[in-house]
Design a protein that fits this description.
408 residues, alpha+beta, Rossmann fold, 20% helix, FNR, EC 1.18.1.2, photosynthesis, NADP, FAD
Length: 408
């Protein structure tokens, strides 16, 4: 505030002779002494006794920061002098009154456009919208749960020809064919992407989903089918061997998946059918970029989709600028063992990288803990509370260490 905020006492023009201007800082001791003792030598004598009016004005040009500013503006803005009206006072008391008016101006800080870090990283969102979706082709549609599982879950692969540049952790929308009860086109449904950015075929030209067919009975006893899920995976009775569509998939992952495909069945959306796709969308659940990170993943059912995309990049792919050296720990919850999704893939990952990957299953209808309670995800995690706490503490220490090093 010092030199930048130096107002001056300046007399207004009047018909009486005024003393010369005396620069005095409002923040200086001299100013406060002046008010306490007007007869001070630093203050000139008042006009003669027969003068009936004394006039003075103080113009303070002060620039104050707004409430959002983090620092004072060191360059004061200059405002027009504030004109004071003269006030008649007894001549004897003329030296005891000083009229002071300080004009304060504030300057709003310039608005700074928010720039998303993820935008800088090239994360694309909403490239294709509902009014102008991308038309892909179904390349693969397979049932990945057992016949006795409560419900059917399907894995499907669509071609994108590289036109939908998604990241691990994003989602896409699917617009089912047909119209609703009002005769309007169906609205899109969002699904988490279940493949890495390279796709299941490794050429960055496909996108995969993990979808459970929704069928339930309402209060009236009517069977209700989910519109989009039944469009994607409607008829499990159309058996079909799909080796012709699995070639790239098997080459990328290895022979361990060949037996996995022999019992898969084609869904209602058959290979070769068109699929209207929107997106990609989502920035909040992107895969961490730190190759040394500890990532604990909790999933139930088809919630495994985004984590599958993470794990494929970590353990099934080779990148010149990324090699995962941290710890990926997956907790997967399902009702029955026949509902376990991608189990063969996860077992292969654990075999390849035992020091970097852990997976624990919670099968609620088949497993219990020591107390006889059903085995849900939180129940399974409670068995590893000490290990998990150690991971959290270690990660917290790393975060604190990183923050401290940045501030030094």
């Amino acid at each position: 505030m010092q030199d930048a905020l130096r107002p001056h006492i300046r007399p207004l023009h009047s018909h009486h002779q005024c003393p010369p201007t005396i620069p005095i800082s409002l923040s200086s001791p001299a100013f406060f002494a002046l008010l306490a003792n007007p007869s001070s030598p630093s203050f000139p004598s008042s006009p003669p006794q027969n003068s009936i009016m004394a006039t003075a004005a103080v113009t303070a040009a002060v620039s104050l920061p707004s409430s959002k500013s983090s620092a004072l503006n060191r360059t004061p803005s200059v405002s027009p002098a504030a004109r004071l009206q003269s006030r008649k006072v007894p001549a004897a008391d003329a030296r005891k009154f000083v009229s002071v008016r300080a004009q304060v101006t504030t300057e709003a800080p310039a608005k700074v456009a928010k720039v998303s870090k993820k935008d800088d990283e090239g994360v694309v969102t909403n490239k294709f919208k509902p009014k102008d979706p991308y038309t892909g082709t179904c390349l693969l549609n397979t049932k990945i749960t057992g016949d006795d599982a409560p419900g059917e879950t399907w894995h499907m692969v669509f071609s994108t020809e590289g036109e939908i540049p998604y990241r691990e952790g994003q989602s896409i929308g699917v617009i089912p064919d047909g119209v609703d009860k009002n005769g309007k086109p169906h609205k899109l449904r969002l699904y988490s992407i279940a493949s890495s950015a390279l796709g299941d075929f490794g050429d960055s030209k496909t996108v995969s989903l993990c979808v459970k067919r929704l069928v339930y009975t309402n209060e009236q006893g009517e069977i209700v089918k989910g519109v989009c899920s039944n469009f994607l995976c409607n008829d499990p009775n159309l058996s079909r061997i799909i080796h012709e569509h699995a070639t790239g998939y098997l080459v990328l992952c290895g022979d361990f998946l060949s037996s996995l495909f022999c019992h898969y069945m084609s869904g209602d959306l058959k290979p070769g059918a068109d699929v209207k796709i929107t997106g990609p969308v989502g920035k909040e659940m992107l895969m961490p970029k730190d190759p040394n990170a500890t990532i604990i993943m909790l999933a139930t059912g088809t919630g495994i989709a985004p984590f599958r995309s993470f794990l494929w990049k970590m353990f099934f792919e080779k990148h010149h600028d990324y090699k995962f050296n941290g710890l990926a720990w997956l907790f997967l919850g399902v009702p029955t063992s026949s509902s376990l999704l991608y189990k063969e893939e996860f077992e292969k990952m654990k075999e390849k990288s035992p020091d970097n990957f852990r997976v624990d299953y919670a099968v609620s209808r088949e497993q219990t803990n020591e107390k006889g309670e059903k085995m849900y995800i939180q129940t399974r995690m409670a068995e590893y509370v000490d290990s998990l706490l150690g991971v959290f503490v270690s990660s917290l220490r790393s975060a604190i260490s990183c923050n401290c090093s940045r501030s030094l």
